[in-house]
């Protein structure tokens, strides 16, 4: 065999392999570029959202031939992992469906599969976000109203099953109710009677439902000044208020309204019949909770008005804040920044909403979702990020909690004391103790003076005793813990006689023998 010929053949082989590597790397770069464009749409930009969507749809339309599966996967993942941008991605899918009907059909099938897989894998939040996105596609003329109503009816059917846990039935009703703010107006205009029938079935279910868990999940034992409503009852009241307002809300951004002339001409798809998977013993469902309320509009100073407890805007704001905490709780700085830069923050008293939601997480019964120190570190970071407003709101919240501490749940009492001592340790233990002088007239075992005792006892772990003696007002001397002095019995008076008496009795006699 000719050695020179073999060398030339090897050169051709390596040349072809390098070309393949270049093609693979070019494809990877293109996929990453598409993913970045899709993920960042709707973020800060010099141009309008409408122009960004038009440009991105044109890019995706041109690349469908090469990256069809990649685009389908990204567009189905984004509204689940970033639910706050649900309407942006539904608008994008609507525009692509108007240009390419086949792609719209493929995407609906892909999204339905994602929804069904989430139900089977007990990924309840992902399933609820997928259902919301499917509902929002009705607004973009991608999915027909009849097929969506059929899906919602099948979920209510699942809520009426026999011999299944109540938490399963509750979740299916909650998923339907939490979807209606996005699509209620469209269903009201086109299928009013079918929507009313759906609501009647839900109302019948709620009236028959037992709520034995309610008292165990309450933060306070009384309902004054804010009632502690069970989560489904509260959401149902908010949906009824939304129905009274003709399904009009002021919080959800709807970019597809700018493209209505284009979207209304698109052909629609039907969702196939979906039967929720039957209950299995190993399935775990979300537990119920009580909606936490701390503020109302009278607590907020001049500025944006806090939405009422039964307005749907309150539910949408709180859900958005909870999702931000869930997504960024590992990094307190990112979490604080995301909370403070909530969209439409100029329309609401954002600081009050944030503090209320964080305390709702901290006082969640029977246990909070994350470690208590997680919420304390986020509140500290919020005070650093916004020192002009957040410390004042947090101080106001602390005053409200202290005044209502008489009826607070014991577990929440301990969490409140843990958080407050940790918070003081990060701000040089400064507090206006004189405002709480009235508690000095009460017995030491009363919840208010007892709370101060617990806080000071925990603060000792972050500082030293003499500092609190100098810092606290004189009237609080009886609440300051005793100095943690060591108790060494051998240095006490009479310790020498005690040692001699006991050692002579207990020490054995030693005899030395000389050999």
From TrEMBL:
The question of whether Mitochondrion is a record keyword is answered with no
Keyword annotations from UniProtKB, A to Z = mRNA capping, mRNA processing, mRNA splicing, Nucleus, RNA-mediated gene silencing
Record-level GO BP terms: 7-methylguanosine mRNA capping; mRNA export from nucleus; nuclear-transcribed mRNA catabolic process, nonsense-mediated decay; primary miRNA processing; RNA splicing
Q: Where in the cell is it found?
A: Nucleus
| MIF4G domain boundaries | 31-243
Q: Which residues cross the membrane?
A: none
Q: Which Pfam families match?
A: MIF4G, MIF4G_like
Recorded GO molecular functions are: mRNA binding; RNA cap binding
Keyword Metal-binding assigned to the entry: answer is no
Lineage top rank: taxon: Eukaryota
A cellular component term, taken from the record's GO annotations: nuclear cap binding complex
What's the family? Belongs to the NCBP1 family.
Q: What is known about what this protein does?
A: Component of the cap-binding complex (CBC), which binds cotranscriptionally to the 5'-cap of pre-mRNAs and is involved in various processes such as pre-mRNA splicing and RNA-mediated gene silencing (RNAi). The CBC complex is involved in miRNA-mediated RNA interference and is required for primary microRNAs (miRNAs) processing. Also involved in innate immunity via the short interfering RNAs (siRNAs) processing machinery by restricting the viral RNA production.
Q: How does it assemble?
A: Component of the nuclear cap-binding complex (CBC), a heterodimer composed of Cbp80 and Cbp20 that interacts with m7GpppG-capped RNA.
* Name this polypeptide is given: Nuclear cap-binding protein subunit 1
């Amino acid at each position: 065999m000719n050695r020179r010929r073999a060398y030339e053949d090897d050169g051709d082989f390596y040349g072809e392999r390098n070309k393949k590597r270049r093609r693979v790397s070019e494809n990877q770069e293109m996929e990453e570029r598409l993913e970045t464009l899709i993920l960042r749409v709707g973020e800060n930009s010099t141009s309008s959202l409408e122009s960004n969507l038009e440009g991105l749809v044109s890019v995706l339309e041109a690349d469908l031939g090469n990256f069809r599966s990649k685009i389908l996967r990204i567009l189905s993942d984004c509204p689940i992992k970033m639910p706050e941008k649900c309407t942006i991605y539904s608008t994008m899918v609507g525009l692509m469906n108007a240009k390419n009907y086949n792609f719209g059909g493929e995407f609906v099938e892909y999204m339905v599969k994602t929804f069904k897989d989430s139900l089977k894998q007990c990924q309840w939040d992902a399933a609820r976000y997928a259902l919301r996105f499917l509902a929002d596609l009705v607004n973009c003329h991608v999915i027909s109203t009849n097929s969506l109503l059929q899906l919602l009816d099948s979920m209510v059917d699942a809520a009426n099953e026999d011999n299944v846990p109540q938490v399963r039935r509750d979740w299916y009703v909650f998923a339907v109710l939490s979807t209606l703010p996005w699509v209620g107006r469209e269903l009201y205009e086109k299928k009013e009677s079918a929507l009313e029938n759906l609501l009647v079935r839900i109302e019948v279910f709620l009236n028959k439902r037992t709520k034995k868990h309610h008292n165990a999940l309450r933060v306070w034992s009384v309902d004054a000044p804010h009632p502690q409503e069970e989560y489904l009852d509260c959401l149902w009241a908010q949906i009824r208020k939304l129905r009274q307002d003709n399904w009009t809300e002021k919080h959800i951004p709807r970019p597809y309204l700018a493209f209505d002339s284009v979207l209304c001409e698109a052909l629609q798809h039907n969702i196939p019949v979906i039967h929720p998977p039957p209950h299995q013993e190993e399935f775990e469902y979300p537990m119920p909770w009580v909606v936490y309320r701390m503020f109302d509009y009278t607590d907020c100073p001049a500025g944006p008005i806090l939405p009422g407890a039964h307005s749907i805007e309150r539910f949408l704001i709180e859900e958005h804040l909870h999702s931000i905490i869930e997504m960024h709780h590992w990094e307190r700085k990112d979490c604080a920044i995301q909370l403070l830069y909530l969209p439409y923050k100029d329309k609401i008293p954002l600081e009050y909403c944030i503090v209320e939601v964080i305390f709702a997480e901290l006082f969640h019964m029977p246990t909070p979702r994350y470690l208590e120190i997680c919420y304390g570190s986020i509140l500290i970071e919020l005070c650093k990020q916004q020192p002009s407003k957040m410390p004042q709101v947090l101080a106001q919240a602390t005053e409200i909690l202290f005044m209502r501490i008489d009826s607070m749940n014991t577990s929440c009492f301990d969490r409140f004391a843990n958080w407050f001592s940790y918070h003081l340790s990060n701000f040089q233990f400064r507090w206006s103790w004189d405002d709480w002088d009235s508690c000095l007239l009460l017995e030491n075992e009363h919840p208010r003076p007892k709370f101060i005792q617990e806080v000071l006892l925990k603060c000792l772990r972050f500082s030293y005793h003499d500092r609190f003696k100098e810092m606290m007002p004189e009237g609080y001397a009886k609440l300051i813990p005793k100095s943690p002095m060591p108790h060494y019995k051998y240095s006490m008076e009479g310790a020498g006689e005690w040692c001699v008496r006991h050692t002579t009795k207990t020490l054995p006699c030693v005899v030395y023998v000389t050999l």
